[in-house]
Structure formats: structure tokens, C-alpha cells
Amino acid sequence: xxxxxxxRLAFWAKGMVSxxxxxxxxxxxxxxxxxxxxxxxxxxxxxxxxxxLFTIVNAVIFIIIAADGIFGAFLPLxxxxxxxxx
Length: 86
Fold this sequence. Notes:
Blueprint: H1 3-21, H2 33-43, H3 48-81
Helix pairs in contact: 1-2
């Protein structure tokens, strides 16, 4: 496994462990006790600040991609399909 793949796995594990610690569940994902133990081990090197930065960066990237889709594709198509008759 490459180091970048391991890093992605560690951040995934940190998110899942945070959800599990809050006594919540992520629909569609269930893990055994051994898998939870492995995820806790994988997520240990990821600090709270690092994980918050990871979450913020991912949110910003998503917002940019969504805005690009709305302003670059949806609005031009909507203007083409539904022109203003004024």
C-alpha cells in the first residue's frame, strides 16, 4: 500500500472512529470489533487539528466543484432552455 493510500485510509478511519465515538452510525457501513480496533490504530496518528483541516479543505473543494457545476453548466443550460421573454 502506498503512503498516500495509507493516509487516505487513516483519514477515513478517523472520521469513522469519530462517528462511532459519538454513538452514531454511518448508514451502509457496519464493522466488527476487530475492524474497529484496526481503525482506531490507523486513526491514532491523525490529530484533531489535522482532521479539522482535512474536513475544511474537503468542504471547500466540494463547494468549488458544486459552484462550478451550477454556474458553468446548470445556469447556462437553464438560460438556453428557459430564456427570459422580456
